[in-house]
Write a structure and sequence with these properties.
Blueprint: H1 4-20, H2 22-58, H3 60-79, H4 81-84
Amino acid sequence: MLSKEDQRRFEEITRQLRESDPRFFARLDHRTRARRGRYLMLLTIVLWASLPAATVVAGGLAGAIFAVVLLANAALMWRFRRRWL
């Protein structure tokens, strides 16, 4: 955690960087978004792989709920794929 003064200074430096070199700042922002997208995709794959075990352990109803949630997740990731990639 930064103190309020340090946070203010950080925001000022960030603002100045954004104004002075917008191409660099945009490139940096794109890399962060891409990394977040890869982590979300990895998490989705792991959850899909764990679906059969969750169904066996928790029962059919829990597995069905798990599957519906994962389908909604996949649909949202597909819908907003430009944002994650």
